[in-house]
Amino acid sequence: MSTPQVITCKAAVAWGAGEALVIEEVEVSPPQPMEIRIKVVSTSLCRSDLSAWESHAIFPRIFGHEASGIVESVGQGVTEFKEGDHVLTVFIGECISCRQCTSGKSNTCLKGEPVYDYCAVSSFSEYTVVHSGCAVKLSPLAPLEKICLLSCGVAAGLGAAWNVADVSKGSTVVIFGLGTVGLSVAQASKLRGASRIIGVDNNPQKCENAFGVTEVVIKCITDGRADFSFECGWGLTVTLGVPKVKLEMSARYGLLLMGRTLKGSLFWGWKPKSDLPSLVKKYLNKEIQIDDYITHNLPFDDINKAFNLMKEGKCQRCVIHMPR
């Protein structure tokens, strides 16, 4: 096998907060030990990409983390992947060998040093290099142009409802925010047998297209009495969004004494390599659906259109198709 060389390819580079991305040529280094280089096939725009792009993050930067692709080359020591494998990228790794991965109690991998790109992926590029722990091997039967949504958005809602909240049959669920994540919570809650799934959003367009919920309102109608809620409510509250500004939280002690529970969910309780293949299998078996979340399919050259659509609240997921 020949030694991988530097690849020159096109990437969408963000040069400043809120500035239009510029498609230009970049050099992608060969994979280093325990890394793989991926030819990105499809990548979708996530709200966290937009939030980081609008903030004073590190620039210049290549955003993107929900992606599917094909392994182009592997670095020294990689045995799990080979050239030609279909993969899903993930922003939280699973090396399978560190103390956290083997504990059975955590999905926070302790592998290596932090990677200063975006979410350890940077998929708004024709090629990208990731740690082998940040990729999940896919069945070649899984459609790459759709399955990329399981990198983050759809997996977020399913995991928050099933793993973190453990939504029960007959319960009432309130979902604040009817984007892809919120509607995935609705799908998961419906599959668990929730009797009422109330969607709350201040965007009329999102309310009109809120499939999977039983009721859609602009304000909460439950008087705070929901068995499960996502952002606020009574009982169990699960946080799964990315805050734009204030990272600190405070709460009245009395609320905890009354039995309210607040839970966070890093990667929503999933262990990527251990659990995501089961979600792919559910999709292939038509047990869960992904297709309806995709409202726009755009060529790579139109990536700025995807950002504008999300900024204006006119889309669920835009899937960006890379040049073949």
> What gross morphology would you assign?
globular
Amino- and carboxy-terminal Cα gap:
23 Å
What average pLDDT do the residues reach? Answer: 88
- CATH class category of the largest domain: Alpha Beta
Q: How many domains is the backbone divided into?
A: 2
Per DSSP E runs of 2 or more residues, the count of β-strands stands at: 15
Helix content: 10-25%
Strand % is 15-25%
- H-E order: EEEHEEHEEHHEHEHEEEHEHEHE
| Number of helices in the DSSP assignment | 9
Task: Describe the structure in your own words.
This protein is of the alpha/beta class and 324 residues long. It folds into 2 domains: 7-151 and 290-321, Quinone Oxidoreductase, Chain A, domain 1 (Alpha-Beta Complex), CATH 3.90.180; 154-267, NAD(P)-binding Rossmann-like Domain (Rossmann fold, 3-Layer(aba) Sandwich). Helix content is 23%, strand content 25%. The protein contains 9 helices and 15 strands. The strands form 3 sheets. Strands 3, 4, 5, 6, 7, 14 and 15 form a 7-stranded mixed beta sheet that branches. The protein has a 6-stranded parallel beta sheet with strand order 10-9-8-11-12-13, with helices on one face. Helix 4 packs across helix 5 (180-191).
